[in-house]
Write a structure and sequence with these properties.
Length: 568
Amino acid sequence: MANPSTMQMSSLSRRSLSTRSYAFRSARPVRSSGGFQQSIQRTTRRSYADAAPAPKPKKGFRFLRWTWRLTWLSGVGLTGYVAYSIYELRHPIEQVGPDPAKKTLVILGTGWGSVSLLKKLDTENYNVVVISPRNYFLFTPLLPSCTTGLVEHRSIMEPIRNITRQKNAYVKFYEAEATKIDYEKRVVYISDDSEIKGDISKTEVPFDMLVVGVGAENATFGIKGVKEHSCFLKEVGDAQKIRKRLMDCVETAIFKDQTEDEIKRLLHMVVVGGGPTGVEFAGEIQDFFEEDLKKWVPEIKENFKVTLVEALPNVLPMFSKQLIDYTESTFKEEAITIRTKTMVKNVTDKYIEAEVTQPDGTKMLEKIPYGLLVWATGNAIRPVVRDLMSQLPAQQNSRRGLAVNEYLVVNGTENVWAVGDCAITNYAPTAQVASQEGAFLARLFNTMAKTEAVETELKLLSDAQAQKSGDERNQIFDEIRERQKQLRRIKQIGPFQYSHQGSLAYIGKERAVADISWLSGNIASGGTMTYLFWRSAYLSMCFSTRNRLLVAVDWIKAKMFGRDVSRE
């Protein structure tokens, strides 16, 4: 039992401790809430100051981040541009109708020169009529790719009405062949050569101004059998014919019990012409064999052969010696045979007879068997051009086409111009030359229209000045001087000058050669990187966004699934 005195002492002790604790707490100074917050802030600042600073992003990471942003923005911009181009193509504008008071400008052909003219021409100044047997523009540099199925022919065709419907003023198009140009009567006689004809299939079209851009035919040089047994490479139909005959040769070669000699003949593909077209076709057909044919038709692996025949000492004569040597060495790697100094003399259904110049200068006649013969050399005058030349005394000494002056006016005529392969200039008959000629004529015609408008204004101002006096007369005189200055500026258009941008050619095995004009010199290159440049250049040169997309899709399809080896 606890002692009462002890319990009393314990109670006193507790009270004493409690009193001291209270006194101690009372003796402390009381801090305000503001001071407490300041203390917390100082502590917080010290904790942040003691922490290590956040690391800055590395330069490499920053570069990649900005690269990604720019790529994303470029993709968005490109998508928007493509979408707008498609919308614009699908929604043509309302056009101004023909005006009888304006001059009638007739354009013959839908090739490089004519379409380049039509694209840049202000059609509001003229009543424009286009006449051509084909209602589309063909991007011919990619035509060799169509022969093997790398590119579909529809991808490089641009309907002519896609072009004419985008103009501000109405452009009339007739799908017809121009059979005769009567210069004295100022009319063009046309004929409907389609399979379906109406009651009227021949008529005439009058003109005030005429542009002849009908191109040229394939030249056979009078060699017997060329037209009957060869395939040309100028039109879509030619590419389709080559593609069909190529597969015919393959399927016939593996026919049961076919002889060895006949197999070798059928699988021998001969290309005549060592220019860009012939070289590109030889490269394309060898690629077709290496990448597709020998996989799906292995029976032909040992006998398939491509030979390029050229009468000159080397191929691609417009390129530098360095690129010629590179092309020949590449063809040797690809097992493409080049027969230079070999002139074709006769063509039969199974072989060609050629005169071969030996290294010692002697000549011998040789028979070269073939299954497919592609003739890719030379241009000849079309009958309608030859007929026009016969009407003009100034053209009597011309042999290769219509002789023109520095403004592309046909010699011996007035208000008749010629562009492209049917015109004789100081430049080679290439698509690049024809395109620049067409653009030049568009500037010339636009200038002529502006000149006539200013001259009309000057005449009206002169008449008004004669009826005025004093300040009004002086004011009109000042306007006349301004119009005269404007007229002089408008008329300052010089003669046509060709600007060579360079030459490109695909040589197979994903290689190309390029001879590009740069400043005052040339840049010659060849190889895989040049091949990528060749593809990008041709893709950018395609006429429309539609063509570019279709060609790009064709290339992707061929890369993923290969070329089609079926026969149409």
